[in-house]
Design brief:
The complex is a heterotetramer of chains A (558), B (214), C (318) and D (118). Chain A is mainly α and 558 residues long. Chain A has 17 helices and 2 strands. Chain A has one domain: Cytochrome C Oxidase, Chain A. Chain C is built from 8 helices and 12 strands. In chain C, helix 1 packs antiparallel against helix 2 and helix 6 crosses helix 7. The longest helix of chain C is centred in the N-terminal third of the chain and has 34 residues. The radius of gyration of chain C is 27 Å and the shape is elongated. The chains are: A mainly alpha (558), B mainly alpha (214), C alpha+beta (318), D mainly alpha (118). Chains A and C meet through helix 3, helix 5, helix 11, helix 12 and helix 13 of A and helix 1, helix 2, strand 7 and strand 9 of C.
């Protein structure tokens, strides 16, 4: 980005300038902060807790599934494990992952603002989110929930004997945290852009975050009310989905998926945004087809609301509705395809280097493409009859959510880590971890496609012996994947103290967030930056200069 | 510009920007609220389409007079609210305070009438469950489940509105608002009108089905 | 070690589904080639430090974008059409199917054959005959999944759903519940046993049965007192039920309903829902007084009733 | 919006219109209009809503962006209702028209006799 920023050039190293991290060191200064960067970090810490619990649940499930017999835990425990895994991962890790952590941290900086539009509301969102999270944890610790993350009635409303209400209330409350975060981002992007930052000069991460926020604001309330209706039915024994009164359990599914399908796009759009940043930066190229990538985000957000019925092809929905939803589902995959093609073309004539964030970005393209293509299988309504509710679906959405979103989250975290902490992570270890994660992920989830086609239903605690071989592969992959997640956790913590000091712009990137110091001062910029041109003004021909790489490698390169 | 009572917050460059952001934020919140109530309206539409007869029979047991009075009360409270915002715009703190209090009182009156109605509904065995009024088909209970949830959630919104407007009234009393700064009043007003709009739809959906056949 | 990739194909639908699956794998492989081959080439050719022509080129961006928007759209529309065709065949039972009733219950499948034979977690069917299953749930949502037949249908409480297949391979195949239904969800499994038609006929007559399904239904019909109103009563006027099944009947609202299993079911449990033209809603709901299996028996009985001859009498019909 | 008393007068006029509409919808509900009872009731609600939103909530004087935000909630609600109903209206076996088997001559021509006397 062509910018005129005075502050970063007049960098005075003599006196350690105050950063957002050193602006108050007490616990109180963190818990009452309204600084979007600190709130982003608060989210990171709480997500780590939820992620760890959900990951342990997943590990236990994979252990159980090594043998066909349900011999390690009881079926009741197993059901609770996958419910805990699903609910915590979806609502307390994936949905807030990129938006609340990286979005909070970089959105205001990317648009050249001093903070989000409503900083106190932002802090409130974090508290609301964690009150919801605490309720969810309460339900996990004091007995667990066994409804699956989908809470289908009448099982959840009438038959389940577990802490359904606490979990539903947790999600209900956390939902308002999500809504307020989305609201904050929408208004921030509308009203706080720096002078010259027009809509079409915005980095693509902002387009994707804007689209995500729209989904958050318009879909989440429906989930909240739906879970409330389910809980009311559970508490009072009569309700709107009760088949005994003529109620229709499929209506619950309509309402649930009206939220939960768009929520899938909450879980992938931000990842796409991150990848657009990474691909351009590490191939030193302007994005190919900026307008198309930008509008693809908006198109995904809107079309994403029209396809929820594809979760219900065999649920008792009319076949005509099924056909309509099938067609719309194919149409929503067009903008995703456009994005992949544009990223590919961006690499053409670039100057590509393979730092950790780029490895994650490339991994994202690979895994997301597989996930997206298998989505075509599921959208083919005739084939979906066979593979829905099997491991095929499990594999598909893990390719999107873990292969897509988590990979992008890791990529983004590595990319912005120097900005967040002022330290570099160890590059070689980072590359190794990315590789391990990629291998582990594919070994875990690819066999599940085959398992699904063979007919292994999801949420099975014990299974037919012929499914064992693929389950063993999957469990083996999961342990590799586990290493792939632990490694970054260790070296990130290590880097806080021992990492190399990061310069203001270690990647020589163009975003406004790189025009300020690392870590940035409290209000991001000493002077409000002025934007004069489009984003991603990289040049593939001038890459040999001014890179962060060690001199040795630079010499070897030239 | 006069120095407004509440200064410009750090993240904004100028007051109009801050005001626009706040108003737009409120509208975004209201869009969320539309979808929040939307899930209930969706359930209502589904079942009314499936069981038109049972819904008509069930709806005849709602108390039309109370419903109509309450509609009138809320419409009037919207008027006083709009006048309150106008008073704020004109820096007329005294009338701002009066109109806000009037709005709050209308809100309380609404809840009072609603309470009377609820009382009578319960006496009439219209609370769904094993003791539900006999003589109605099972699907009629779904209407009444929806009646209680929809009016209940709406009443909750009215209550929140009353609290919000009471705070505004207190702030108005303390001269916190002026023609240059009255965004909180305006946004509370938007919320209040929204609650009114929801009722405008609840009224025909719950009270006016097939009345002529009753 | 054995790495199976496909389950057995035990029905015509299985073959259709597998073709579609293979075609989709083909499309995926081509797409992956189109995306990944250039990526790998670019990564190699334009890796930093390697000499390459990096001078900016002016590409016809609009044309390229439109091309790769339109081409996927066309391919996707084709896939959609194919998927819909398979779905259409899988979802719509042919008219001449033999019907078997299934009730899903935590955590078992209860099956009633029209001849009166009942079984649990096993479904015996004859080879080469079209079978239509009438699925009902006693409690929560279940899903009737036959992987070797590539079909699946959720079993939703409060209504009937249907599933049909025509087995073309002898043997024992999997039956899974594929919609999570509670603690022993993974134990709600069973088998479909495809037999030669003669063996099936023999099997049907083994063991004791208490008469055909319709006969059980008739007993219930009398026990519950249905006959009191629906058979020429002089006090209450209820519609006669003979020959009603499959017909289009006018409703009080001026609409018409095609009498199917679902309509009969609703008329028993939610009698106020769709009232036949010319009648008043005098019937009480039988909600809670009959279970799903009994309902299916009643439905079977009403289906079996012939159209009334002018001298309208059930006895004669028998 | 310029002179001091104009908005107040306008608000009062709108309030009168709102109460008139309320009276109208109340009155119409007692008259049998067939399917138009629903149309009238919802049409009047929509009219009242427009009055409240455009004037009391000043959307009429707001920039386009506000209009977009206001309509977003409504559009998304319509998406939800529309696509959900696409399932429900194609699901059942009740059709607006059909041929009664009783009138096909196939069966008992004396059907009316079996009907209830009222």
């Amino acid at each position: 980005m062509n910018t005129t920023v005075e502050s970063s050039e007049i960098f005075v190293p003599a006196r350690e300038p105050k950063t957002y991290l050193t602006e108050g060191r007490t616990l109180k200064s963190w818990l009452l902060t309204t600084d979007h960067k600190r709130i982003g970090l608060l989210y990171l810490y709480s997500l780590l807790v939820y992620f760890t619990i959900a990951a342990i649940a997943a590990a236990l499930m994979r252990l159980e599934l090594i043998t066909p017999a349900g011999d390690m835990v009881t079926s009741e425990t197993y059901n609770k494990l996958f419910t805990i895994h699903g609910t915590l991962m979806v609502w307390f890790f994936l949905i807030p992952s990129i938006p609340a952590v990286l979005g909070n941290f970089v959105i205001p900086m990317m648009i050249g603002a001093r903070d989000v539009a409503f900083p106190r509301l932002n802090l409130l969102s974090w508290y609301i989110f964690n009150i919801g999270g605490s309720l969810a944890l309460y339900s996990v610790l004091f007995g667990g929930v066994d409804t699956g993350w989908t809470f289908y009635t009448p099982y959840s409303s009438t038959y389940a004997n577990s802490h359904v209400i606490a979990m539903a209330a947790g999600i209900f409350i956390a939902g308002f945290g999500t809504i307020l975060t989305g609201l904050n981002f929408i208004i921030t992007i509308h009203k706080l852009r720096a002078p010259g930052m027009t809509w079409f000069r915005m980095p693509l991460f902002l387009w994707s975050m804007y689209s995500t926020s729209v989904i958050m604001v318009l879909a989440t309330p429906v989930l909240a009310m739906t879970l409330a209706l389910m809980s009311i039915e559970r508490i009072w024994g009569v309700g709107v989905f009760d088949p005994k009164l003529g109620g229709d359990p499929v209506l619950f599914q309509h309402l649930f998926w009206f939220y939960s399908h768009p929520a899938v796009y909450i879980m992938i759009l931000p990842g796409m945004g991150v990848v657009s940043e990474l691909i351009t930066c590490f191939s030193r190229k302007q994005i190919f087809g900026y307008h198309f990538v930008a509008f693809a985000s908006v198109a995904i957000a809107v079309l994403g609301f029209l396809v929820w019925g594809h979760h219900m092809f065999v649920a008792g929905e009319s076949i005509y509705a099924g056909i309509v939803f099938s067609f719309l589902s194919y149409m929503v995959s067009v903008p995703s395809a456009i994005k992949v093609f544009n990223w590919t073309m961006t690499l053409y004539r670039g100057s590509i280097s393979f730092e950790t964030p780029m490895l994650y970005a490339l991994g994202f393209i690979g895994l997301f493409t597989v996930g997206g293509l298998t989505g075509l299988f599921l959208a083919a309504v005739g084939l979906d009859v066979h593979v829905t509710d099997t491991y095929f679906v499990v594999a598909h959405f893990h390719y999107i959510m873990v292969g897509g979103m988590v990979t992008a989250f890791m990529g983004g975290l590595h990319y912005w880590w120097p900005k967040i902490t002022g330290r570099m992570y160890p590059e070689k270890l980072g590359q190794l971890a990315a590789l391990i994660m990629y291998i582990g992920f594919n070994l875990t989830f690819f066999p599940q496609f085959i398992l699904g086609y063979l007919g292994m239903p999801r949420r099975y605690h014990a299974y037919a012996p012929e499914f064992q071989i693929y389950n063993v592969m999957s469990s083996a992959g999961a342990s590799i994947l586990g290493v792939g997640y632990l490694l970054p956790l260790i070296y990130f913590i290590w880097s806080l103290k021992h990492g190399k000091k990061a310069p203001a712009n270690p990647w020589n990137a163009t975003g406004l967030e790189w025009q300020t110091t690392s870590p940035p001062p409290k209000h991001n910029f000493k002077e409000t930056p002025v934007v004069t041109g489009p984003p991603y003004q990289y040049s593939a021909e001038e890459t040999e200069i001014a890179l962060h790489k060690p001199a040795k490698e630079q010499r070897a390169a030239s | 510009m006069n120095n407004p009572p509440t200064a410009l917050q750090d993240q904004f460059v100028e007051m109009p920007q801050q005001k626009e952001a706040a108003t737009l934020g409120m509208w975004t919140f209201l869009a969320t609220e539309v979808l929040f109530f939307g899930a209930m309206f969706m359930s209502y539409i589904t079942y009314r389409t499936a069981y038109p007869r049972a819904f008509a029979l069930a709806s005849h047991h709602t108390i039309l007079l109370f419903g109509t009075i309450n509609t009138a009360i809320l419409l009037t409270s919207s008027l006083t609210m709009a006048l309150a915002v106008q008073a704020a715009k004109e820096s007329n703190s005294r009338w701002l305070f009066r109109f806000l209090v009037a709005t709050v009182l209308f809100g309380v009156a609404f809840l009072g009438v609603k309470g009377l109605e609820y009382h009578q509904d319960i006496a009439d065995h219209l609370w769904p469950g094993p003791h539900f009024k006999s003589g109605l088909p099972p699907e009629a209970q779904i209407f009444w489940v929806l009646y209680w949830i929809m009016t209940g959630v709406h009443a909750l919104h009215v209550t929140v509105g009353i609290v919000l407007l009471s705070i505004m009234a207190l702030m108005a009393r303390r001269q916190k608002f002026s023609g240059a700064y009255y965004t909180p009043v305006e946004n509370s007003g938007l919320y209040w009108h929204f609650v009114d709009v929801i009722w405008i739809f609840l009224y025909p959906l719950l009270y006016l089905i097939h009345r002529y056949a009753a | 070690m054995n790495f199976p990739l496909f389950p057995d194909e035990a029905s015509a639908a299985a073959r259709q589904t597998d073709y579609l699956y293979c075609a989709l794998i083909g499309v995926s492989l081509v797409t992956m080639a189109v995306v990944f081959v250039p990526i790998v080439i670019f990564l190699f050719k334009y890796r930093r430090g390697k000499k390459a022509d990096r001078s900016p080129v002016h590409l016809p961006e609009m044309k390229i974008e439109i091309t790769w928007t339109i081409i996927p759209m066309i391919i996707f529309t084709g896939l959609f059409a194919w998927g819909t065709e398979v779905f259409w065949n899988v979802e719509r039972p042919p008219a001449n199917a033999m019907e078997i009733d299934v009730v899903g219950k935590q955590w078992m499948w209860k099956i009633q054959h029209p001849e009166g034979k009942r079984e649990i977690d096993e479904l015996h069917v004859p080879l080469g005959r079209t079978v239509k299953l009438l699925l009902a749930s006693q409690d929560v949502i279940h899903s009737f999944f036959l992987p070797e037949f590539r079909i699946k249908q959720d079993v939703v409480p409060g209504r009937y759903t249907t599933l049909w297949f025509k087995a073309n391979k002898l043997g024992t195949f999997h039956l899974f519940c594929s919609e999570y239904c509670g603690t022993h969800h993974s134990a709600m499994i069973g088998h479909v046993i495809v037999m030669k038609p003669a063996a099936y006929e023999a099997w049907l007559t083994q063991g004791e049965t208490s008469g055909t399904l319709a006969q059980s239904g008739e007993r219930l019909y009398r026990e519950l007192g249905c006959s009191g109103c629906h058979e020429n009563s002089t006090i209450v006027h209820a519609p006669p039920l003979g020959g009603i099944f499959g017909k289009s009947v006018p409703l009080q609202t001026g609409q018409f309903v095609t009498v199917d299993e679902g309509y009969i079911r609703d008329s028993i449990l939610l009698p106020a829902k769709d009232i036949a033209a010319g009648y008043t809603n005098d019937m009480p709901s039988f909600q809670g007084r009959v279970n799903e299996e009994q309902l299916q028996q009643l439905v079977a009985y009403i289906k079996s009733l012939p159209a009334p001859v002018p001298n309208n009498s059930i006895q004669e019909a028998k | 919006m310029k002179t001091a008393n104009a908005p107040k007068k306008m608000y009062i006029r709108i309030w009168i219109a709102l109460l008139a509409l309320l009276a109208l919808t109340w009155g119409l509900s007692e008259v049998d209009l067939g399917p138009f009872n629903n149309v009238a009731a919802l049409g009047i609600s929509a009219a009242k809503t427009l009055l409240v939103v455009l004037f009391f909530m000043h959307v009429r004087y707001e920039p386009k962006l506000t209009w977009i935000f206001v309509s977003a909630g409504l559009i998304w609600l319509l998406i939800m209702v529309d696509l959900t109903m696409s399932d429900y209206v194609t699901r059942g076996n009740v059709r607006p028209t059909g041929q009664s088997w009783r009138h096909t001559g196939q069966i008992d021509p004396a059907t009316p006799a079996t009907r209830s006397p009222d």
